Records
---
Amino acid sequence: MPTQDELKLQAAHEALRFIEPGMVVGLGSGSTATLFIKLLGEKVKKGLVIRGIASSEDSAKLGAELGIPIIDFHSATEIDVTIDGADEVAPGLALIKGGGGKLLREKIVASASKKFIVVADASKLVQTLGKFPLPIEVIPMAQPLVSKKLELLGLHSKIRQAKDGSGNYITDEGNLILDCGPTVIEDPIALGEKISAITGVVEHGLFINFANLALIAGESEVKQYTRESQIP
Ligand SMILES: O=C[C@H](O)[C@H](O)[C@H](O)COP(=O)(O)O
């Protein structure tokens, strides 16, 4: 049986089929998107001409190291296709993202993308979002207020800590991440609107109506899911 890392690699590999010469490609963040960036870097070394817009400092650095020309929204305001990972993929291709803390720039990149393709292994498929704690990016000064208001929505939040033990995790934009739940998110659109209405919230990790396609690697194959697909 393939390992989870092997499955992630298979999904990332499948995404290469959607890249054409001359495209502006959105570079996602996280372990699966990183595998895709590495594969894309190999193609660029062999002569593929594309430009990348990165969804995090990490992905920008990696892309540049691999020889992918990294541009920003001053050079192009439209992205042909973005390849990114997800923490949960539910029916309708409703997603939770932000497990790696990059949700804000990821959502900006997704919002500028003509096509947004999720790459993941089958463990990310769920019927209902929320088992993975929902990440919310908040302005540091507002955190206690935001946490209190999230409680009123039934969301118990914790400030994310940096993995190296240096204290609070700080995003690329200098903010905090609150991880909320686990919970059961029956109506992600309604919940997203309520969270966004809290002053001090910068962005949340619910990505609804962003993804057009998901490439999900299971034991025997990489399956394509659209918004109409049943999630097994
Ligand atoms: O902030 C991180 C991103 O949203 C990632 O794309 C997400 O957490 C999935 O990451 P991974 O591919 O490592 O499971």
---
Amino acid sequence: MTHLPQEHGPLEPRVLQAAEWDGWYDALETAFGSAESPERRAMWQALTEVDRSLAVWDGDRPVGAAGAFSFRLAVPGGAVLPAAGVTMVGVLPTHRRRGVLTALMRRQLDDVHERGESLAVLTASEPGIYGRYGYGLASWQLGVRIDRARARVARPAGEPVRLRLADPAGSAADCERLYAAQVPLRPGMLARRPGWERVALFDPPSERGGRAPLQCVLAEDRADATLLGYARYSVGISWEHGGPGGEVRVREVTAATPGARAALWNYLLELDLTDTVVAASLPVDDPLLHLVSDPRRLRSQLSDALFVRLVEVGDALRSRRYAAPVDLVLAVEDEFCPWNTGRWHLHAAGPEHPAACEPTEDAADLALSVRELGAAYLGGCTLAAQAAAGLVRELRPGALARASAAFGWPVAPWLPHGF
Ligand SMILES: CC(=O)SCCNC(=O)CCNC(=O)[C@H](O)C(C)(C)COP(=O)(O)OP(=O)(O)OC[C@H]1O[C@@H](n2cnc3c(N)ncnc32)[C@H](O)[C@@H]1OP(=O)(O)O
């Protein structure tokens, strides 16, 4: 067991009690140097899975925190797997660099393993923190800040859809059904747990900063009114410089057809009195890159998104599909979860077929740590690129190219919302 210095006592994370939530969350706010609105705090309290929330105590004071959500995550091939969504991690500034986080991660990954979840995922406040615990950076995202005057999206030919403004809450059930149908199609997407639609709709007046309320525009089939897509966004207009200067903030664009997608982006880029359209997170292969007249005017910025940790390597590798036939032995090193260390024989006949993955004593073709495997798992970060960075070693000529092609996927992974 790790220990705090003498005056602090032993470092034993324990599961939170519901009545302790306020003090626990206060500690998190102090750790993050932030103070949330009462509405946001209430939302996170309602969504907290108390039985998966851990705290380290110094006397009666929580000094370290870590939580998890019971998510389901889409992986290459369309399976949507149980995954622990690691969240609400923080240690009070007075108690840092003494191993509190490491003790929390130890307990949490043991709990995740015991529950039988083969994956844990997170987004990092600082990407340097989690590699030591076996998390690899598996997906990226594009933020865009579109100069509306210079970038256009044409209306879809034949006008296959009709746009209709709808009450965001009133239309939520239909929109969530459409979202759910999209989840298996893109690795990295999270099935929305019951209650999580409130994150998508969260819009308290206290957090609007003078902007108009959240809007929802539906794209419906012109013939039979089937819902084909929707966009949630808000507008803020400023008259400060002698004329209108508005910003459209896009929260979500979900579309089941190319026509719906084009119609929604055309709408968002044509809103009067605005000059900038901002979207904080799009997939790196978002069709918008091809729809827009001048992609340079997207002023896109790449940033890290989802980190993936394979908690049970064999189960995780069996549970996804592979883009090309693969028959390889991987020598995996996992210091933090040693049950994964060893050689694994991965075998799959291509994307149409389930994979097999079992421990083996055969000679290895590739050597890598669980972190690189996590980075490659969703198909968005190639093993070849990681080998070029010196992180993956090819032990049999040709194995790297074959493995890299098999672990890739035609659709880039993307995390649709934070947690
Ligand atoms: C999923 C999420 O919720 S992400 C949010 C993470 N939380 C925050 O960023 C809030 C502000 N920061 C904090 O609360 C703390 O500094 C934490 C949680 C990041 C680290 O907690 P600590 O208890 O200080 O970490 P701990 O002492 O266990 O350190 C373990 C290792 O991580 C390293 N480390 C700790 N913080 C960082 C960091 N921000 N960047 C890089 N390395 C770090 C330590 O140096 C140590 O390295 P070592 O094993 O080589 O000695």
